[in-house]
Amino acid sequence: MHQYIDGSRRDGTSGRTQRVIDPSTGEEIATVALASAEDVDLAVAAARRAFGAWSRTTPAERSALLLRTAEVLRERQDELAELESRQCGKPIRLAREFDVPGSIDNVEFFAGAARILEGKATGEYSPTHTSSIRREPLGVVGSIAPWNYPLQMAVWKIFPAIAAGNTVVLKPAEITPLTALVLAEALTTAGVPDGVVNIVVGDGREAGAALARHTDVDMISFTGSTAVGRSVMEAATSNAKRVHLELGGKAPFVVFDDADLEAAVHGAVAGSLINGGQDCTAATRAIVHESIIDRFVAGVAELYESVTLGPTAEDATDMGPLSSFAHRDKVAAMVERARGYATIVTGGRAGEGNLAAGAYYHPTLVVGAGTDSEIYRDEVFGPVLTVTPFRDDDEAIALANDTPYGLAASAWTNDLHRGLRATREIVAGCVWVNDHIPIISEMPHGGVKQSGFGKDMSSYSFEEYTSIKHVMFDLSREPRKDWHRTIFRID
Ligand code: NAD
Predict the structure, then answer these.
(1) I want to staple 207 with a disulfide (CB 3.0 to 4.6 A). Which of 35, 172, 479, 480 is the partner?
(2) Which Pfam families does the record cross-reference, listed alphabetically (predicted)?
(3) What confidence tier does 490 reach under pLDDT thresholds 50, 70, 90?
């Protein structure tokens, strides 16, 4: 049973099913009875019922329950890592060392942050009134998540929302729902009341769209592609609900001629191949000074060829398959089309031999793609890096910004002024200098331009999940107040 509504598991009632496949073998792990729009109604009703009492818990009470949840997750960390690895094709090393501990750290961060939520101090901004600011939860939050980091995305969506006193209905991606369900169970085990967090596993067309347009949902928080983000935003107009969108990316990776080339090459390989390149912040467009581009390309190609593709359960595996066969085929088709106008230096092929049964795709390095070409402009969301030369700093910054996206970027230089200029002028939600990928719970994550708006992680995310209320007390005790002159003429 793959729905979690009002504190217990049940089956979806759409009459349609979704097979959850291990993409490293093609084997089925589970079959999900998908949620219908009626199941979404049930989950929203449970979240609405739970909201009153949950929103009145003290920050300290919520914090204690969240800390206990982190403990339960730690007790189940091996199971979580294995499930995450199998349902997405993640190398077990990545799931064990990155996804699961990163998720638990995020839960612990929000357990602490719950206690520093505050409104502004009270004051007299009018001589006859005392004003104060109350920071309040919004109500029921609908969350929609993608398949690339299912556990982390569920945590990023759920914990700032409930730490602030909201209740949640989360729809994970239908092909990777299993760890979000364990997370919901952990919340119940920890003592979080039924209905505070509900999971509906349905497809985007029915359950996702139903959640986005639901008139009893106060906010929709969406992470996924820019195209679907647009339709979620449109659906949210049904009741003018608040919208938070974390969308696609096409991160530039700018290497200046003074950069430490070894660091840049290693950074490009790790930054482009993490999670098989299925990372919205992954390095996708290397923009490299013309004087060092040949050495950069040779270095990346050599390291790409040394990356071990292999079964997800093996510790020696560096990169697993892509998350689904359909997605692998989409990545492969984009690379095939690129052969017509660019050079594939290495990769550009699916896994062979004992990898042929899985959705594997080799790390792929592309040079010579024009800046108006598909492979350069569109999100591939796979292990594919393009390399483009630049002549001077102005051109580097212009190329970095020549994209509809603005999620993440990096600049590689040992020149302080170049580094500072890049952080100031590259338009993105995050700019790293001499690194690419690291994130931490205390710092915000989110984009600009068509990468969306609003922040995940950090206390900045409370701006999304709360509203502020102005409270104004009359101090004068006058039945006839001075400003009434605007209505009652007093001559
Ligand atoms: P997607 O947009 O296809 O799906 C995301 C979610 O939306 C899924 O749960 C899906 O079922 C649901 N959905 C699909 N159609 C819907 C509809 N009409 N109404 C409501 N919900 C609908 O994205 P994906 O392929 O799962 O994930 C990859 C995308 O996510 C990439 O573009 C990637 O950049 C983006 N992403 C962004 C971030 C970020 O933080 N900015 C993080 C991870 C992934």
Answers:
(1) 35
(2) Aldedh
(3) low
> Is the shortest distance between the CB of 18 and ligand 1 below 6 Å?
no
Taking CA 275 as the corner, what is the angle to CA 378 and CA 272, rounded to the nearest 5 degrees?
A: 55
Residue 454 phi/psi, 5-degree rounding, is 100, 165
* Segment 138-159 mean pLDDT: 98
CA–CA gap between residue 404 and residue 338 (Å, rounded): 20
With tokens 């299925």, the residue in question is 278
- Residue positions annotated with a catalytic role: 246
Q: Is 99 in the pocket of ligand 1 (CB under 6 A)?
A: no
Taking only the tens place, the pLDDT of each residue in 193-202 is: 999 999 999 9
Q: Do 262 and 218 share a structural domain? A: no
Same domain, 265 and 236: no
Give how many domains the chain has, as a whole number: 2
Q: Within a domain: residue 119? A: yes
Which residue's CA is minimally distant from atom 14 of ligand 1?
204
Cβ of residue 195 lying under 6 Å from some atom of ligand 1: no
CATH number, position 344? 3.40.309.10
Nearest by Cα to 89 from 433, 382, 450: 382
Judgement on whether residues 139 and 288 belong to the same structural domain of the protein: no
Signed CA dihedral, 347, 353, 355, 359: sign only: positive
Structural domain of 361: 251-433
pLDDT digits (tens, 9 = 90+) for 367-391: 999 999 999 999 999 999 999 999 9
CA distance 386 to 382: 12
Give the nearest ligand 1 atom to 445 CA: 40
Q: Specify the pTM.
A: 0.97
Residues 92 and 63 in one domain: yes
Residues 6 or more apart whose CB falls under 8 angstroms from that of 29 comprise 20, 21, 22, 86, 87, 178
Residue with tokens 């005790």: 477
In a domain, 268, yes or no: yes
Q: State the virtual CA torsion across 197, 202, 207, 212 in degrees, nearest 10.
A: 60
